[in-house]
Write a structure and sequence with these properties.
2 strands
């Protein structure tokens, strides 16, 4: 039976069901619920866009696999861990070429601000979903009733400290892979008074109550 949350249908194909079970098996409830919310929030933000729900679903569900014990590596960014596994998963189901590459890119870029929003819908909407759930960006772009429906189905109790702990545990053994935009370093050196935007402060001060 097709599941619907906040007016958004969860894909119910064999591929989608297998993706759900894979993530449920390897991820903590925190990451599983977060990944489902990313799909739902991304779909809610993309109501005016044409996108493939299955591709968006796999992108959302696999986007944090690199934080899990089974799929994390120490030699590359955690985003690429999930992207690589998503592409292998899609190839095993006969989805290759551009569709698989779109999902890979959606996951690989989901922590890179702005750029994904100028790419294909599936890529943009994974980022939209992540930004809303983690950072509170676009919080008011959906209704209170929609947020409540999503968080009732997939609760986020004590989410801010727990997701920060998950990030820390998933990347602490590969600190060099967290290198971000080098332009921030330039500004820190040469623009008086400039301070880089702090990711942790954004999460702690987002409009989410927990």
């Amino acid at each position: 039976m097709t599941e619907e949350i906040a007016g958004i249908r969860i894909p119910d194909s064999p591929l989608a069901r297998e993706a759900t079970e894979l993530v449920r098996e390897v991820a903590s409830p925190l990451l599983f619920n977060h990944s489902r919310r990313v799909y739902l929030f991304g779909a809610l933000r993309g109501r005016e866009l044409a996108y493939d729900p299955e591709l968006l679903y796999v992108g959302a569900m696999f986007h944090d696999l690199g934080l899990t014990e089974r799929y994390r590596r120490t030699d590359q960014r955690f985003e690429i861990d999930g992207a690589d596994e998503a592409r292998r998963f899609l190839h095993a189901h006969g989805i290759t070429g551009d569709p698989a590459d779109r999902v890979w890119t959606a996951i690989a870029l989901h922590t890179t601000p702005e750029i994904p929003l100028h790419m294909s819908a599936e890529i943009a909407l994974v980022t939209r979903g992540v930004e809303l759930d983690v950072l509170g960006m676009g919080y008011d772009a959906i209704t209170d009733a929609e947020r409540e429906a999503v968080t009732t189905a997939h609760p986020r109790p004590d989410f801010k400290p727990q997701i920060l702990q998950a990030f820390t545990e998933g990347i602490q053994d590969r600190p060099a892979t967290t290198f971000g935009n080098v332009k921030a370093d330039v500004l820190e050196h040469f623009v008086p008074g400039f301070h880089h935007t702090d990711f942790v402060d954004i999460i702690k001060n987002s409009p989410w109550p927990e």
